[in-house]
Amino acid sequence: MTGRVAIATAHWRRLDREGTDRCTLSRLDYGWMLVGQAIWHEDGRDSALTYDLRCDPDRSSLSADVTGTAVGRELALRIRRSGGGWMLNEVLQPETLGCDDLNLNITPATNILPLRRVSLDTDADAPVRAAWLSLALDHLAPLDQTYHRLAGGRVLYASPQYQAELHIHETGFVTHYPDLWEGWVDV
To answer: If you count DSSP H runs as helices and E runs as strands, how many of each does the chain have, helices first?
Structure first.
């Protein structure tokens, strides 16, 4: 049997609409795992998606499953790394070649992976390229991101369409994502 030890559980509430998310980071014998559920209300409909994201010992993403209902549509997504990029339900997403991380877009949980993996010295940028699950939840695209550590558990985050100062718990989970998420962590 594979050993699994829960490290921390993060809880968030959405700030841009009604919704919550809860995610547990666990250490496995062969790597790391994020398991969570995001629930939100959008366009008059309820959405509830569960996600399981698996990583290697260095916290590089390997695969994920996302299942449930999003804005009235049933989803069953299988995402996995391949030699040519990331696969979404066995369809190659060729633009994702070279993306070490997976950003599921429905949760702030996936930020913990690069935050715990890359060396973030104060006043130094850490560029990260992630395979980003689109807002429509139907394809993956590359997302260039930069993390810049500040003092006091804060990080400047930048991507092409979003920039903000994030508050980071000692576990690596984001606890404040301006205009999007606010949360806390149980250790």
So the answer is: 1, 15
